[in-house]
Amino acid sequence: MTRGLRTIRDGVTALALLVFIWLIAAKLNDHAAIVHAGAFRAADGDSLAIGSERMRLFGIDAPELSQTCQRDGATWACGQEAKRMLQGLVAAADAQCQGTERDRFSRLLVVCHAGGLDLNGAMVRRGMAVSYGGYQSEERQARAEKVGLWAGTFDMPRAVRDHKQQERQPHGPSGLLSW
């Protein structure tokens, strides 16, 4: 066999081996969807529980449970209202949540549906959550119609969480010594 043909043969063999390894890796990463249905309990505006399973609604970020917002010159408990709305949505008899991945807190990242409605999108569309990697068109609609959070002023949920985390961390020299 000539040198050129051996080089081509070796190249094709190496490529076939790489494709085979890629297929094995893809299969190992292929997680079966986990589906839950039944009596969900809203922990807040973007988190659910059913039995011992904890879930986080994918693509949205709702106000923190203790968060307040401003509307018409008054303070309102937007975090509590977001939780109530989510609880109402998942109370439907046919509510079902499905996901394949987990977040850093081991919560299953889910998209929930009931009555043909994407509940994650419904939370954003009704102005009780903001887009967090998904549902941008629903957020644009909620902003334009000034519904929910968009009817007044509010701090983004992420900023509220970051602020709370900073408050919990020790500051100054005493914080360094307690390390």
Provide a quick synopsis of the model.
This protein is 41% helix and 24% strand. With 179 residues, it is α+β, with helices and mostly antiparallel strands.
Protein model, in words:
- The structure is a single chain.
- About 40% of the residues lie in helices and about 25% in strands.
- The protein has helices at about 5-30, 80-90, 120-125, 135-145, 155-170, 170-175; strands at about 35, 40-45, 45-50, 55, 60, 70, 75, 95-100, 110-115, 115-120, 130.
- Mean pLDDT is about 85; it is low at about 175-179.
- The chain contains 6 helices and 11 strands.
- The longest helix is centred in the N-terminal third of the chain and has 26 residues, at about 5-30.
- It is elongated, with a radius of gyration of 23 Å.
- Strands 1, 2, 3, 4, 8, 9 and 10 form a 7-stranded mixed sheet that branches. Strands 5-11 form a two-stranded antiparallel sheet.
List its salient traits:
11 strands; 179 residues; alpha+beta; two-stranded antiparallel sheet; seven-stranded mixed beta sheet; elongated; disordered C terminus; OB fold (Dihydrolipoamide Acetyltransferase, E2P)
